Amino acid sequence: MPDQRALKNPYKDYDGTQNLFDPSTPSFAGQDCTGYRAGAGIALLYLHLHGVFGESSYLQRALEYVSRSLSLKPARWVTLPVWRRGARGPSRAVVLPPPAARPGRPTSCINRSELSPPFYTEAPPRPAYILPDDCCTARAGFLYSLVFINQQFRPGEDPHPICDAALASGESLAKRNRTQDQSPLMYEWYQEQYVGAAHGLAGIYYFLMQPGFVAGQDRVQSLVKPSVDFVCQLKFPSGNYPPCVGDERDLLVHWCHGSPGVIYMLLQAYKVFGVKQYLEDALQSGEVLWQRGLLKKGYGLCHGAAGNAYGFLALYKVTREARHLYRACMFADWCMNYGKHGCRTPDTPFSLFEGMAGTIYFLADLLQPMRSKFPAFEV
């Protein structure tokens, strides 16, 4: 059945002869407080532009957006990647909290018409004493914020307590669901075992495999590695991954749900454990990206062409193979024709994760591909 979610890729694939920097090559240069939808994310864009181009005016613009965010209602929670009313801790020090979701419902990464219950449900608000572990709303995202602050100020904040809590949470749920023999760690978001980078297993395991995050390499080997292997077993024959454990529909090719976000977990597992199969799975995910990554949803980071293109850059940084950089450039060419492909207009068209700010962030990162990082996620 043809995929109805992606537009046909019009570009000729890399054959080893293209000169990426030939002038004839298509051009590729170029109210809440959260990082996902609003001002803090745009502040992160301007901070990034300052880092790339060195212009002080970008830093001033970042400060302006941070000031607007800090003028809103004070935070209710201390977890950084937040709800609409959530915390703004790192933005007080530098600029940003990472992505946010709306209170009482999942983000718009999956539309109700695309995934019927139980994989997408209007869940009740999470009790205050239960802290999730994913990248967009809790511990894994908090780890990114902690690393970001450490990189900016080198205060030496210890990630071990956060990782210890995440491991304990994952072990507890695996035992409660009786899945510990398959996966020693298990996580849920809104009563669903999501797989992807935004709310799921791949994003959490990516952080738990970062050097120095977990105290004791034996726990990484005994808890994280078999859990990563469990995710690998969920792979569809196409090379894509389901949005949730148990969902057999090969539909979503987004950073938030599907192979684009799982690539980061696979590449990190390859770096840590040296198992070549992880790299092979990541390369297969890259093929999925090339075939199905120009999304009708648009040009953004969370579920758009720019976010998918970061998967090519991740592969390029590990393999140094020119075809991955070429593919990222072709997706950038697509993004340079912003708004001309009949794609949907996002709810927040200028935001970092849904809109134009994220696309600009990617285009700027493409000028320094070996230093590129998916914003508010890659460490």
UniProtKB/TrEMBL annotation:
Q: Which terms are listed as keywords in the entry?
A: Cell membrane, Cytoplasm, Membrane, Metal-binding, Transferase, Zinc
Reaction catalyzed: 1-chloro-2,4-dinitrobenzene + glutathione = 2,4-dinitrophenyl-S-glutathione + chloride + H(+); RX + glutathione = an S-substituted glutathione + a halide anion + H(+)
Matching InterPro entries, A to Z? 6hp_glycosidase-like_sf, LANC-like, LanC-like_prot_euk
**What is the enzyme's main class?**
transferase
Which gene name does the record give? LANCL1
GO cellular component annotations of the record: cytoplasm; plasma membrane
**Where primarily located?**
membrane
Membrane topology term: Peripheral membrane protein
* Protein's organism: Denticeps clupeoides (denticle herring)
The reply on keyword Cell membrane is: yes
| BP terms from Gene Ontology | carbohydrate metabolic process; peptide modification
Residues binding Zn(2+), per UniProt:
C256, C302, H303
An example Gene Ontology molecular-function term: metal ion binding
The protein's matches in Gene3D superfamilies, at most eight in alphabetical order, are given as: 1.50.10.10
Task: Name the chain's protein.
Answer: Glutathione S-transferase LANCL1
Localisation: Cell membrane; Cytoplasm
Give its E.C. classification number: 2.5.1.18
The UniProt family comment states: Belongs to the LanC-like protein family.
